[in-house]
C-alpha cells in the first residue's frame, strides 16, 4: 500500500512540473510576439515600408513654357548704403537754475514752450534782497553826507592855512578825513550796486532762445544755487549723434553731407557732419559722428534717426518683381530650363531697387530666364505653364 501511495505522489509532482514548464514557455513566446509587434509598429511609423523619394529639385511633371512672358536675371552695379543708428541731441543745451537761495514764487513756462532771449522764466521771493538794497542806499546817503562835511571842513582849513592861521597838522588831518569819507562813499556805492545785482538775480530770464524740455521745480519750492529748475535747448542746433563703424568713419570728414532718416516722421533730411570724435570705442569698434540737421518744427530732441552712409559700389542680381511668387512668408520664382521645362525655386530677396526691380540674394544665376506672373495666377504654377 505504501508503494502505491508513493507512486501516486510522484505522478502528481510530474504533472505539476509539466504544467509549470508549459506556462513559462507560453510567457516567453508572448513576450517575443509583443516585441515583434512593437518593432513592426516603429518601422511602419518611421516609413520603412514606404517608397523613398530621392533628395534634390524635382521639376513639375510635364510642365513646359507656354506663351507666358519671361524676363532675364540681370547683374547690376548698385551703390551700397550703410545705416548708423543714433539719437537726436541738441549741441546747445542750457540748464536754468537760480543764483540765490529763495522761495520760488512763479515759473512762467512749462515743458514744450518756446521762449525768446531775455524772456522772464522764474521769479523768486525778493523781500530779503529788497531790504538789503534799502540798507545799502541808507548807508550810501550817510557816507555822502560825511564826504560833503569833510569837503567843507577841508576847504575851511585850507583857507586858514593859506592865511597862516592854521597849522600844517590841522591841514593834514582835514585832508585825511576827506580821503576817508570819499573812500567810505565809494564803498557804500559799491554795496548798493552789489545789492542791486543780487536783487536782479531774483528774476531769472532766458539767456538764449529755445524750447523748454524739462521742468524740475514748482512754485513754493526752495531754489538752491546751481540746482536745475528748467532745461531748454536751441532747436536750431539739433544734430544726430550716431556710432559709425570705424571702416566707414575714417572716410568721413567735417562738412560732408549725408542723409538722415527719421522713422517716426518717415522723412529724410539732409545733414552736415559737424564733428567726429577722434577716439574709437573699443568694444564696438566705432567712432561717434555728429551731423547737424536743418531747423524743423517736427524734430524733437531724443528722437530716433538713421545716418545713411554711402559704402561704395556693389554688384548684385536683380529680377522683375512680377516674377516673384509669394506663398506665406516664402518666395519662389519659376525658372525656364534650357529644355523648356519650368522649375520652381525658392529664392531670398533683398531690397527693392528701381521701380519694378527686386534684388535677389540667392536661388538664381545671372542670365537665367524666369516666368512673369499676372496678379490673377501669381500663387499657382499650373496657370503659368502648359502641361503636355
TrEMBL record:
GO function terms (MF aspect): efflux transmembrane transporter activity
Alphabetical keyword list: Coiled coil, Membrane, Transmembrane, Transmembrane helix
Protein name, per record: Macrolide export protein MacA
Source lineage: Bacteria, Pseudomonadati, Planctomycetota, Planctomycetia, Pirellulales
Family annotation (NCBIfam families): RND_mfp
Organism: Roseimaritima multifibrata
Residue ranges of domain CusB-like beta-barrel in the record: 240-307
Listed transmembrane segments: 21-45
Similarity comment: Belongs to the membrane fusion protein (MFP) (TC 8.A.1) family.
Domain of life the protein comes from: Bacteria
Pfam families in UniProt: Beta-barrel_RND_2
GO CC list: efflux pump complex
Coiled-coil residue windows: 126-160
Amino acid at each position: 500500500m505504501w508503494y502505491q501511495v508513493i507512486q501516486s505522489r510522484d505522478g502528481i509532482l510530474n504533472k505539476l512540473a509539466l504544467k509549470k514548464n508549459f506556462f513559462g514557455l507560453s510567457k516567453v513566446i508572448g513576450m517575443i510576439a509583443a516585441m515583434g509587434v512593437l518593432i513592426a509598429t516603429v518601422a511602419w511609423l518611421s516609413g520603412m515600408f514606404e517608397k523613398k523619394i530621392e533628395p534634390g529639385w524635382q521639376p513639375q511633371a510635364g510642365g513646359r513654357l507656354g506663351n507666358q512672358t519671361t524676363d532675364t536675371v540681370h547683374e547690376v552695379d548698385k551703390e551700397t548704403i550703410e545705416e548708423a543708428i543714433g539719437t537726436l541731441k541738441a549741441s546747445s543745451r542750457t540748464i536754468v537754475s537760480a543764483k540765490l537761495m529763495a522761495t520760488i514764487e512763479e515759473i512762467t513756462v512749462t515743458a514744450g514752450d518756446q521762449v525768446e532771449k531775455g524772456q522772464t522764466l522764474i521769479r523768486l521771493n525778493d523781500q530779503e534782497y529788497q531790504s538789503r538794497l534799502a540798507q545799502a542806499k541808507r548807508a550810501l546817503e550817510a557816507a555822502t553826507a560825511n564826504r560833503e562835511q569833510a569837503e567843507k571842513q577841508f576847504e575851511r582849513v585850507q583857507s586858514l592855512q593859506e592865511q597862516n592861521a592854521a597849522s600844517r597838522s590841522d591841514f593834514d588831518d582835514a585832508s585825511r578825513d576827506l580821503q576817508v569819507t570819499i573812500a567810505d562813499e565809494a564803498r557804500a556805492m559799491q554795496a548798493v550796486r552789489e545789492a542791486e545785482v543780487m536783487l536782479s538775480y531774483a528774476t531769472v530770464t532766458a539767456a538764449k532762445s529755445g524750447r523748454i524740455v524739462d521742468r524740475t521745480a514748482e512754485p513754493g519750492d526752495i531754489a538752491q544755487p546751481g540746482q536745475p529748475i528748467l532745461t531748454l535747448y536751441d532747436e536750431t542746433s539739433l544734430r544726430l549723434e550716431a556710432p559709425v563703424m570705424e571702416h566707414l568713419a575714417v572716410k568721413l570728414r567735417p562738412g560732408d553731407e549725408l542723409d538722415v532718416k527719421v522713422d517716426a516722421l518717415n522723412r529724410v533730411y539732409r545733414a552736415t557732419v559737424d564733428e567726429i570724435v577722434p577716439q574709437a570705442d573699443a568694444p564696438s569698434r566705432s567712432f561717434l559722428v555728429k551731423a547737424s540737421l536743418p531747423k524743423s518744427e517736427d524734430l524733437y530732441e531724443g528722437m530716433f534717426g538713421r545716418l545713411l552712409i554711402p559704402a561704395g559700389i556693389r554688384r548684385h542680381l536683380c529680377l522683375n518683381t512680377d516674377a516673384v511668387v509669394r506663398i506665406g512668408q516664402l518666395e519662389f520664382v519659376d525658372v525656364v530650363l534650357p529644355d523648356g521645362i519650368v522649375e520652381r525655386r525658392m529664392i531670398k530677396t533683398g531690397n527693392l531697387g528701381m521701380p519694378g526691380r527686386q534684388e535677389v540674394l540667392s536661388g538664381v544665376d545671372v542670365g537665367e530666364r524666369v516666368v512673369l506672373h499676372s496678379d490673377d495666377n501669381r500663387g499657382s504654377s499650373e496657370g503659368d505653364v502648359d502641361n503636355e
